């Protein structure tokens, strides 16, 4: 790893220097070759194991924890900060730099009551899902590795500690801006410094002046909207959309009780602590905007309100247009692109209606989201009979929807090509909670990570048939239906 230290060198006062504490008997549980390439690494080796388990210093690293705050479940917490994630610096790769962070690397000045650790089950889940989302082209932080250990940690019972090695283009969150607005009140110079740094590092096409700031916020709004459109299209529930878990670059960030939908359900809540369903699957688009509004408020000392509001107004159309485009590719509507903005919005609206009717049909018949889409992509569109019809409870509702759908798809020149294209947009395999759970249980009970490795392999090619893995595309068994994860991690 070759590091630069721009955040560390340029943003004194935005972090605390801290040394990670090694974990005993470290062992690789997982390693991502794809993530390794991003920072110019090849295969894992023992030196890297020692460095990434914090048992040896990594040459060129500056260990630090960033300070931020955030709105958690709607309420403002004035000071959070990296309580268990320690950043080594920005590792230089062939196509840019990536922060390397040891999540679970030990206590920091921001640990509050916590032990600075992550338990194996949560570290494994973060590792698997980061790489799974990347393979589905969902904007996300990455995971280079997950490292297990013998170090005991206490949650509801005794477990063992692990470290996820996270790669992020940036660790700057909405909560960084909130911290320097509210918690260090009277420090707009710091807010400006943070914004100028963010622009210079991650938005180099923009200038650090009023026009640049205005455009920057438009881009933040739109990348957030696009990320959430991806979540809705792929059926991903994040679970803890607090503003301290929202990346300024619109990358999916911090994986706690997340889930991919099995049965389609707008009201699905994956987080055991989310009693009111604030972060239910269908709420995510609205929460994204709520969070952006909290960010906008924190920016009012340095960006005019009118500019912030104008940018926020682009959220909904961006999200809808991205979502509709992703769903068009899944359902095979063909692109509807139009020069005239109003006509485009009208087309998007009509398609959105057809898509929503489809998801309502799935919901009413309690059907599996990913598998139903995969099935839809295999129909012969000219045929009056869709295999999904047999799964529907209300067949006549499906029939009338299917007629409208056929009309919208229109003539397909080559059905086989059309079906192959659909398969490139409808994953056969997603990281269902029960699959992650089975991999975790094997590690916990037998120290056996082979299921984890198998899942990782599988999920790097989620669109391919991989017939010997058919079982892993199935809906969960009874014990794994609608698994709800606790926040303790
Ligand atoms: N075991 C722990 N020890 C110390 N601090 C913790 C621990 N678990 C969570 N925290 C802190 O509590 C806050 C909220 O936790 P949250 O679960 O959102 O983040 P996280 O998963 O720890 O990390 P990140 O957001 O970096 O992915 C953060 O400040 C986090 O650092
Ligand atoms: Mg977090």
TrEMBL record:
Essential cofactor(s): Mg(2+); Mn(2+)
Active-site residues, record numbering mapped to chain: 244 (proton acceptor)
UniProt keyword list: ATP-binding, Magnesium, Manganese, Metal-binding, Nucleotide-binding, Nucleotidyltransferase, Transferase
Top-tier EC class: transferase
Entry binding sites for Mg(2+): 245, 254
EC number(s) from the headed UniProt entry: 2.7.7.-, 2.7.7.108
UniProt key word Glycoprotein: no
Pfam (any one): SelO
InterPro entries per record: SelO
Binding site for ATP: 81, 83-84, 103, 115-116, 166, 173, 254
Domain of life: Bacteria
Catalysed transformations (reactions): L-tyrosyl-[protein] + UTP = O-(5'-uridylyl)-L-tyrosyl-[protein] + diphosphate; L-seryl-[protein] + UTP = O-(5'-uridylyl)-L-seryl-[protein] + diphosphate; L-seryl-[protein] + ATP = 3-O-(5'-adenylyl)-L-seryl-[protein] + diphosphate; L-histidyl-[protein] + UTP = N(tele)-(5'-uridylyl)-L-histidyl-[protein] + diphosphate
Stated role: Nucleotidyltransferase involved in the post-translational modification of proteins. It can catalyze the addition of adenosine monophosphate (AMP) or uridine monophosphate (UMP) to a protein, resulting in modifications known as AMPylation and UMPylation.
Family the UniProt entry places it in: Belongs to the SELO family.
PANTHER family reported for this sequence: PROTEIN ADENYLYLTRANSFERASE SELO, MITOCHONDRIAL
HAMAP family in UniProt: SelO
Protein name, UniProt field: Protein nucleotidyltransferase YdiU
Organism encoding this protein: Shewanella litoralis
């Amino acid at each position: 790893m070759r590091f630069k230290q721009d955040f560390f060198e340029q943003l004194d006062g935005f972090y605390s220097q801290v040394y990670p504490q090694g974990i005993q008997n470290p062992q690789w549980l997982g390693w991502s070759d794809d993530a390794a390439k991003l920072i110019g690494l090849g295969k894992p080796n023992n030196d890297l194991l020692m460095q990434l388990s914090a048992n040896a210093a990594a040459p060129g690293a500056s260990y630090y924890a960033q300070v931020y705050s955030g709105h958690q479940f709607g309420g403002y917490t004035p000071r959070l900060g990296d309580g268990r994630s320690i950043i080594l610096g920005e590792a230089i790769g062939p196509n840019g730099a990536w922060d390397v962070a040891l999540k679970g690397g030990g206590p920091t000045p921001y640990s509050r009551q916590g032990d600075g650790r992550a338990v194996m089950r949560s570290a494994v889940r973060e590792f698997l899902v980061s790489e799974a989302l990347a393979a589905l082209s969902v904007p996300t932080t990455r995971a280079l590795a997950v490292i297990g250990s013998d170090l005991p940690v206490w949650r509801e019972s005794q477990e063992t500690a692990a470290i996820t090695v996270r790669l992020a283009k940036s660790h700057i969150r909405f909560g960084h801006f909130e911290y320097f607005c509210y918690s260090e009140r009277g420090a707009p110079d710091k807010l400006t410094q943070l914004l100028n740094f963010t622009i210079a590092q991650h938005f180099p096409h923009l200038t650090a002046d009023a026009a640049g700031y205005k455009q920057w916020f438009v881009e933040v709004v739109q990348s957030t909207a696009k990320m959430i459109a991806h979540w809705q299209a792929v059926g991903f529930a994040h679970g803890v959309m607090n503003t301290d878990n929202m990346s300024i670059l619109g990358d999916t960030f911090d994986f706690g009780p997340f889930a991919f939908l099995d049965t389609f359900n707008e009201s699905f809540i994956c987080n055991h602590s989310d009693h009111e369903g604030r972060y239910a699957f269908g709420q995510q688009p609205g929460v994204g905007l709520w969070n952006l509004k909290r960010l906008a408020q924190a920016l009012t000392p340095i960006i005019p309100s009118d500019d912030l509001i104008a940018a926020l107004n682009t959220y909904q159309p961006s999200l809808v247009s991205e979502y509709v485009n992703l769903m068009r590719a899944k359902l095979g509507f063909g692109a509807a692109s139009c020069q005239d903005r109003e006509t485009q919005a009208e087309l998007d609206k009509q398609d959105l209606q057809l898509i929503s009717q489809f998801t309502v049909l799935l919901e009413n018949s309690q059907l599996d989201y990913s598998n139903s889409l995969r099935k839809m992509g295999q129909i012969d569109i000219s045929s009056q009979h869709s295999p999904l019809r047999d799964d529907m409870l209300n067949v006549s509702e499906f029939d009338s929807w299917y007629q409208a759908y056929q009309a919208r798809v229109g003539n397909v020149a080559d059905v086989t090509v059309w079906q192959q294209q659909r398969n490139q947009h409808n994953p056969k395999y997603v990281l269902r909670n029960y699959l992650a759970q089975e991999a975790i249980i094997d590690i916990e009970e037998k120290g056996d990570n082979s299921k984890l490795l198998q899942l990782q392999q599988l999920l790097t090619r989620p669109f391919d048939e991989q017939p010997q893995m058919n079982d892993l595309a199935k809906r969960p068994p009874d014990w794994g239906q609608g698994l709800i994860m606790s926040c303790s991690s």
